[in-house]
Amino acid sequence: MNFFGYVNEFSGQLAFEFYQHASMVFQCVLLASIIGLGLAVASYRKPWLAGVTTGTASVIFTIPSLALFGLMIPLFGLGVAPSVVALTLYAMLPIVRNAIVGLQGVDKNMVDAARGMGMGRMAILFRVELPLAWPVVLTGIRVSTQLAVGVGAIAAYASGPGLGEQIFSGLARLGGANAINQVVAGTLGIVILALLFDAAYVLIGRLTTSRGLRV
How do residues 17-73 score in pLDDT, each as one tens digit? Predict the structure, then answer.
């Protein structure tokens, strides 16, 4: 069976795994964004704490992805849970780092002007600092999403959802029927998903960022 015949024959399964992969990435990046932004907001005013936060996320990021998924199995078993935890941890570094850099890079004169107008700390954060830092923050989320789309394929090692099942199954049966078709279909699906996510972020950036702040 050629590649197009394989895609036609298993289109339902491929579409389901494509949806699973997209859903897993979306949920993990959303969770990583909430946690990462919270850590950045809590630490950006104290350089030493910002350094500890970024350093901790960096250490997690250096763990080989296959090893991290494997380490999650004794803690959470097989399936969705270890995949979500590992992928969320991997997605945090670009978000944390960009959020801290973006918040620390806000013009101090703007903050002083807001303080002079009587704004409190939270008002300055939500009405001045976060809007000004948003383009940098969004770039971090965008990078994390691309990272999660690729690393998400390894979730199949922990019996997680997504297109990784096609790749792992094909690689395990190299030389067998449809083995190459499975690897190519899984890989192409991940590339298409990455492009779709990237296009969505371009649109979100244009809709949520004023023209003068776009990066």
Answer: 999 999 999 999 999 999 999 999 999 999 999 999 999 999 988 988 888 888 888
Q: CA–CA separation, 197 vs 150, rounded Å?
A: 12
Residue 173, pLDDT score? 84
- Amino acid at residue number 145: T
> Cα–Cα distance between 187 and 164 in angstroms, integer?
8
Q: Specify the pTM.
A: 0.89
Q: How far is CA 201 from the centre of its chain?
A: 12
Fold of 3-208: MetI-like fold (1.10.3720)
Query: How wide is the angle at C-alpha 64 spanned by C-alphas 58 and 66, nearest 5°?
Result: 135
65, 36, 17, 44: which is closest to 143 by C-alpha? 36
The SS3 of residue 10 is: coil
pLDDT grade, residue 215 (50/70/90)?
low
Phi, psi (degrees; rounded to nearest 5) at 100: -65, -45
Residue with tokens 């997504």: 162
- The closest of 79, 71, 73, 63 to 156, measured between CA atoms, is 79
